[in-house]
Design brief:
Layout: E1 2-7, E2 10-17, H1 19-37, H2 43-65, E3 77-87, E4 90-100, E5 106-108
Antiparallel strand pairs: 1-2, 1-5, 2-3, 3-4
Length: 109
Amino acid sequence: MTVKLLVPGATITGTVAPADSFYDWVVEQQTKGTAEFDDGVSEETEQVLDFLFGQPAAELRAFREADEPSPPELVRYIHLRDAQVRIGQSLTDVGFIRVLLSQVSSWTI
């Protein structure tokens, strides 16, 4: 589902995506970026990425696969893929984006 969000100073459009997809994308981007500058990804980097993104993604995926609602403390953001941010006349493709729901002043489908 494509959605348009109005946030202070910008309009963001994109396709709603599950949070675990966003976390997986972050791990992929960080791994790719780290590998370009180092001789591969260190074990420490993998552990940090797993702790910050891998474990939360697995937890959210488990809730969704069990058809259970996510705990309220995990539902504070909306995640959009193929996102574009418009500020004034400038339009920027950003890929994935995570938006704090309390910052959304209005939205439309």
